[in-house]
Amino acid sequence: MDNLITHCANDMWSSWTNSNTALQQRVTESQDTHSKLQSHMAKTMQEIYDQEKHIQALKKAVRDKEAPLKVSLSLMIVAVAEVVSVASFSPAAATTAAVVGMVVVAALLAAAAIYLGCYWIIVVSFSFFQILFSSSAGFPEPP
To answer: Quick check: pTM over 0.70?
Structure first.
């Protein structure tokens, strides 16, 4: 009987030790995983912060470019107006004015597209340039 009680006690002690060891190992693994997740979260948060700073810098760069863009667009419009006013006096200049007008319109479209971020307008503008300057399009000869 003593032998049986000793054997049961040893089995219980062995089971308790194994359970305690397994639990301690699981707690250690959980703590390691928690530390790794916290480290990964800190890196991710830093990357998000860096990207937000980059976005703010890009927005500031766009704002800084707005005034020069408006000036250049205004200058192009003034140039077209001058060409058109000259074209009203000469038929040869009228053909030139039409070509210059088309080029300026395409350039304005491209500038507006870049400013607005509508890249499909850029594609259309450059297609217009290709058609405009292709040999098959041919410009009318001045009279």
So the answer is: no
Q: At what angle do helices 91-116 and 2-87 cross, to 10 degrees?
A: 160
- Gyration radius from the chain CA atoms: 38
pLDDT tens digits, one per residue of 92-130: 555 666 666 666 666 776 666 666 666 555 566 566 556
Q: Which two tokens stand for residue 20?
A: 């305690």
Cα distances (angstroms) measured from residue 85 to each of 23, 93, 129: 90, 10, 24
Residues sharing a CB contact under 8 Å with residue 95, sequence separation 6 or more, in sequence order: 139, 140, 141, 142
Interatomic CA distance for residues 40 and 19, integer angstroms? 31
Q: How far is CA 130 from its chain centroid?
A: 28
65-102 pLDDT per residue, tens: 877 777 776 776 666 666 555 555 555 555 666 666 66
Residue 53 token pair? 């700073």
Domain ranges of the chain: 2-133
